[in-house]
Design brief:
- The chain is an alpha+beta fold.
- The strands form 2 sheets. Strands 1, 4, 5, 8, 9, 10, 12 and 13 form an 8-stranded mixed sheet that branches.
- It binds ligand MTE.
- The site of ligand MTE has 16 residues, from loops.
Amino acid sequence: MLIRMARKSTPKSSEITPKDVYLNRRRFIAGTGLIAGSAALGLNSAPVSAAVEPPGANPALSPIVDGYSKVGADDPLTPYTDVTSYNNFYEFGTGKGDPVENAGPFNPKPWEITVDGMCANPGTMGLEDFLKPHDLEERIYRLRCVEAWSMVVPWVGISLADVVKRFEPNGSAKYVQFETIVRKEEMVGQRSRRILPWPYIEGLRLDEAMNPLAILAVGLYGEELPNQNGAPIRLMTPWKYGFKSIKSIVKITFTDKKPKNTWQVMASNEYGFYANVNPGVDHPRWSQARERRIGDFLRRETLMFNGYEEEVGELYAGMNLRKEY
Ligand code: MTE
C-alpha cells in the first residue's frame, strides 16, 4: 500500500490532535490488524449520526495514513463536539443546531455513487468499491465558512486527484460537478423548495479538482463522518469557502460546462463559482477580512486562500479575483 508522507515542514497529526484522542485511535487501528479501510467501511460499524463525543469504539476507518496536513501552531483542533454540533447542512434545516438534531433518521448505508459525463470509465458503484483503490489519509485543514467563522478539522479522506485520474476524464472535460442526495423522507429541509433548490450542486474546475489539497472526506477525528457533517462522503477544498464542500455526494459528473453551483443560483451577487477565501474581497453584506475561530473570543485575520496560497495560488494566476469570486 502506498503511504503518502506529510511534508517535513508540516506538523504531524500526533503533534496537533489532542493526545488522548490520538492515542485511542492509534491503539484501535493497531488492534484491527490494519484491515483495508475501504473494505471495512460501511460493513462493520454503527452509524454515527448525532453523537457529540468521538465514539471511541468500533471505528470503521483503518488504516489511516498521514496525508498533507497544514495548519499552524495557533490552529489547535476544534473540539469534536463543536465540529459535529455547529453545522451548515440545509437539507436538515437552516439553523446551526438543526443538522445534529434532525440528521438522526438519515441512513447513509448502503450508499451508491454514480460517476458519469465526459470520462472513459463511467459507472455506478457502492461506496466500498468507490473507495477500495484509494488510501485513506488524515488531513488536518482549516475550514473557513463564508459567514466568517472557522474551524480546524482532522479529516479522513481520499485524494480527489486520484479519483479523477481513475475515471479518466476526456480532453473536452473542463469541470467536475458534484450532487448531493435528495431524500425528502429523511431530510426534513428538502421538503421545502423555499430553502434551496434541491439537489445541492457544487463544482470545481478540473485543475482545481486535481490539486493535491482537494479530498473526498469520509471521516473526521478518525471516525466515520457523522450524518450532520455529510455522511458518508463529502468534498473538502480547504482554500475555498465552506459552501464549496458539498456533503453526502451521490453523483460526480465530468463536463465541459461550468456547473451552476447552488449558492450562486440562489444569489449570484453574493456567491460565485470560485469562492476562494479572500480577505480582500468582502461579501456584499459583511467583511471577509477577519473571522471568528469557533471557541475563540477574539477575531483573527483571514488568510489569502485560507493560508494555502503556496499550494493553490498558481491555479488563479492572471485572474481578476475581484470579478471572478
Ligand atoms: N452541502 C450540502 N449538501 N448542503 C449544505 O447546506 N452547506 C455548506 C457545506 N456543504 C451545505 C453543504 C456550508 S455553507 C458549509 S460552511 C459547510 O458545508 C459546513 O460543513 P460542516 O457543517 O461540516 O462544518
